[in-house]
Amino acid sequence: MFELLKAGGILMVPILACSIIALAIVLERFYSLRPSRVAPQQTINELWRWIKKKELNGRKLKALQGSSPLGRILAGGLMNAKHGREIMKESIEHEASQVIHDLERFLNPLGTIATITPLLGLLGTVIGMIKVFAEIQLAGVGNAGNLAGGISEALITTASGLSVAIPALICHRYFIRRVDELVVGMEQEAIKLVEVVHGDREIDVEGA
């Protein structure tokens, strides 16, 4: 690995740094964006049971708020339910915007890494080719070893940049899609809560 980094030149250092950061982000987002963590079904079922049995109080609202991102959204709406439907919806939207911001954490840096690593590889290619042509200008085409070194540096940086960028881009798109799916699911639960609280919908007995 060290020989590969050495052969690729100085631009292998930022490419390697990008690969480490990208891997850390991917592992953290896989853990943080699990549906069982963001919108656990047991939290929803427990809330419906509390509402159905009229057991909802301040202590349980606090527990709901700290249980999960979905619980935070639903608790925000319930805390302002007495002020009317529109205020409740605004409270839910306010909490949801903060939750979505948290769900999208680190996705911009991951997308940036997917964008810049091919450019770093391309820059390495250009530098390597410059060295090749400089060597040709000074010594002609007879010194094959020096020419091969410049070409090797160009190819290694390009391959390394693409090797980091492709998985980073795939994971970035995947996480964006997962966030969208989680948001849609939480939005449906929030709408259902508003309708239940204001008497427009009956609680699902099976879900409760």
Q: Could you describe the 3D structure shown?
A:
The chain is an all-alpha fold and 208 residues long. The protein has one domain (1-198). The chain is built from nine helices and no strands. It is rod-shaped. The termini are far apart.
State the main characteristics:
208 residues; rod-shaped; 0% strand; mainly alpha
Rg value? 27 Å
Instruction: Provide the low-confidence segments as ranges.
Output: none
Determine the N-to-C terminus distance. Answer: 56 Å
* Major β-sheet profile: none
Q: Structural class, from secondary structure content?
A: mainly alpha
Task: Please give the share of residues in helix.
Answer: over 70%
Overall morphology: rod-shaped
Total domains, how many?
Answer: 1
**β-sheet strand percentage:** under 5%
H-E order = HHHHHHHHH
Arithmetic mean pLDDT: 86
Instruction: Please work out how many helical segments DSSP would assign.
Output: 9
Number of strands: 0
Topology readout:
Elements: H1 2-8, H2 12-32, H3 35-38, H4 41-52, H5 58-67, H6 69-79, H7 85-103, H8 107-139, H9 144-197
Helix pairs in contact: 2-8, 2-9, 5-6, 6-7, 6-9, 7-9, 8-9
